[in-house]
Amino acid sequence: MTVPDFDSAIPETASPEVEFISLSHLNPSTELNPVPTRGIDLAYFRRYVAALEEGGYDYTLLPYGSNSADSFVVASAVGQLTERIRPIVALRPNTTFPTVGAQKLATLDQLTEGRAVVHLISGGSDAEQARQGDYLPKERRYARTSEYVDVLRRSWTESAPFSHDGEFYRFDDFGPGFAPYASPIPISIGGQSDEAFQVGGEKADIFSFWGEPLDDLRSEIERVNGIARASGRTTLPRIWVTFRPIIARTDELAWEKAHDYVAKVAESFQKYAGRMIGKGAPQNVGSKRALAFANRSELYDRALWTKTAAVTGAAGASTALVGSPETVAAAILDYVDRGASLVSIRGYDTLADAVDYGRYVLPLVRQEIAHRRETGRRGTLQAEHLGNYAPEYSRYATAGQA
Ligand SMILES: Cc1cc2nc3c(=O)[nH]c(=O)nc-3n(C[C@H](O)[C@H](O)[C@H](O)COP(=O)(O)O)c2cc1C
């Protein structure tokens, strides 16, 4: 593999800033050690959220599924348990009428003095949508999401009552709605189907991806930016990318851990991935892409590993970055160089990993960003910790494989 040139010139596509997201977990059950539970372990949840805030994360995602805790209620709890971290509410338009969604989000925003963010889920699985009475085909779900964004923004900004008669929603004489704390609440959209790019490119403040090989992700970023420009936008959506890092003191030790983890994750997936996730081929494009990458190769670029996606049907965020904190921080900077400004990381050993990333990975990435801001030059982390760009790394990656 040719080693890219990590000289001191900062790539033109590089984001000047990076913020970190991590998902909030409600109980100690993990993919490594699944403990079937239907509940919130309050002490664990409080410890988890506190660890994210102390660890320097900027946002926490409250995901949504038909059998999960309600993301709004959990976000409100996060807001009161923290001072700084921003709760990202995953919201499916089929579950909440848009003016009510606007009201809930504005309430959360005021209760957190302006920290609310919303991630609109159009829904990657017809079966999952049907569990809550939503029978729209996916492309229509995205059209509904598009109308939903318009109503959210009008509900937050219109100073006089207004009526709306759209394809999916109709109401009369609404408002002025309950207002956000100070500024508009950022709207994120995720998904990789054509419809996702169209709606996200035209209307999203943030467009989110699951972790892909660098060049593939860069062309997806250019695609959403192209749609944004074509729609006459002057600001491009911020780019959010998600990984499952597996770190240890050295690359070699990280790979020993990775092989151990993937065996456990595969076993629990086989054992527990029943009705909700399904063992069949995923319907959403993001997961299909992840499986295609996994079929093509296990290793990409500096540290991207796709085996974790292959053994879990790429359900949700499923691609890993494997290595020492330095190698993983350098890999994250590679994505920042491609335009990502929001990096979501969550481990398989949930709480312990969240703490470790906060101690060992976030500071390294932030040091480099500060160095770039001060000097206008790239530091040496990416040149010094080559990961898979150096021959010994792939030896570790293949060692210990069954
Ligand atoms: C970062 C990220 C977070 C997501 N969180 C959720 C979630 O909490 N619940 C959910 O049902 N879908 C979630 N999704 C799935 C998508 O929002 C989307 O609806 C689905 O993947 C449809 O995908 P497609 O357009 O790629 O086919 C998430 C996607 C991304 C990229």
From TrEMBL:
The lineage of its organism: Bacteria, Bacillati, Actinomycetota, Actinomycetes, Frankiales. One of its GO terms (molecular function) is monooxygenase activity. It comes from the Bacteria. Residues 37-341 form the Luciferase-like domain. This is Alkanesulfonate monooxygenase. Keywords: Flavoprotein, FMN, Monooxygenase, Oxidoreductase. PANTHER family: ALKANESULFONATE MONOOXYGENASE, ALKANESULFONATE MONOOXYGENASE-RELATED. InterPro entries: Luciferase-like_dom, Luciferase-like_sf, SsuD_RutA_monooxygenase.
